[in-house]
Amino acid sequence: MTAQKMWTFVLVGLLMMTCVTEASRLNRFMSNVCYFGCLAERVACFSSTGAIFGTVPYGIIAVTPTLESCTVVFKICKASCIAILISSKI
């Protein structure tokens, strides 16, 4: 992965986290937008490594560090979306 692609990935991740924190008081619709953003980020991460999201078996993802990091970031992002959903019900 080139340095430019890595910085793009980091900046997109920071942007998503900013959106998550700013959107924590919004409703269920914002949670769905968040899920879409997480998925778009994961697809972009896979593309930056040269893989096509949805075509790589999990066994390959688990042993490839860059793809595994994409999965970890995706899980953290989804957890943030769940926090938005929960906070909108309070």
UniProtKB/TrEMBL annotation:
Residues of the signal peptide: 1-23
Lineage, highest ranks first: Eukaryota, Metazoa, Ecdysozoa, Arthropoda, Hexapoda
Entry protein name: Uncharacterized protein
Keywords for this protein: Signal
